[in-house]
# Entry
Amino acid sequence: MPYYFYQFKFLSPVRFGGRRGAGMAESSMQFTATQLFSSFCIEWGRLFGAQSLHEDLVQAALSDSLQISDLFPYLHEEFYLPKPVLFRIRSQRGETEQDKKKLKKIEYIPVEKFKQFVDSLESGSNVKGLDAEFGAEVLNYRCAKSYEQQSMPYIVSGFQFKEGAGLYFVIQTSEEMQKTLHHVVESLGLSGIGGKKSSGYGKFEILNSGLLTECNNKSLKQIHEMLISDGDSYMCLSSAVPNEDEIKVLENENSFYRLQYQGGFVESFTYSQNRLKKKNIASIQAGSCLAERIVGRVVDVSNEGAHPVFCYGKSMQAGIKL
# Structure
């Protein structure tokens, strides 16, 4: 199946949440494949109905006919990938403590410098030009009105992308499915993704999209090459939930990964009269590097509601040469 890409220009701040327990006062620009698939499901059901949602979109995910990456940043013509979670024995140590602190804060690597960065993990050389700024956190003040108690102010944070910056994702699916998803993505741009959509957050327009094989951007061509190539290690480009028989890959001494926990409330009017939370689930974070490719799975995380709630945990991986 071919790979497609979508490049978003955001028209308003986004609210994708921050650290666990940070509440409304912290936000980030990280949006996982799990969250994106959830947004697809909500919008697909609204546009085409529940039957089409389960027969077409959900079945495509369950049958491995749909792979989605996390959303990653771009800045002008340069596209970025997550910093790989890799351990390599260094042949020399040329970096200073200040360099180490800078490197620790960096979350994304320019695609065109990705191989140079991976090599530097062993050589200890300093790679220049990694500390890009994509935008800044913004704070908006709101007031919770109540007729019975005194109105209380609170802070809602968001992330505002600067001019020339935004997010992109890669998707692998059939041509027919991509055409339908294109309408879904266009509709999502009007309604928004992430939190606080009722306040106008998360709205975007499609800046560019198409087949990775037909794009002229050097970074995107390199991403496609990594996706279709074998490697010494395989970096996850999506939050992934391994199958039981794939746990052994995580136990391999050449697999390096981070876990993240995902949960939250179910956004469905037909699920329950009251807002109910999904079951929490642990997934492998994008940027994790595994010794082998894994498939991953889609998990039902419903909790006493009227219908299933699917957590997307299929794995999209890029081959890395060490």
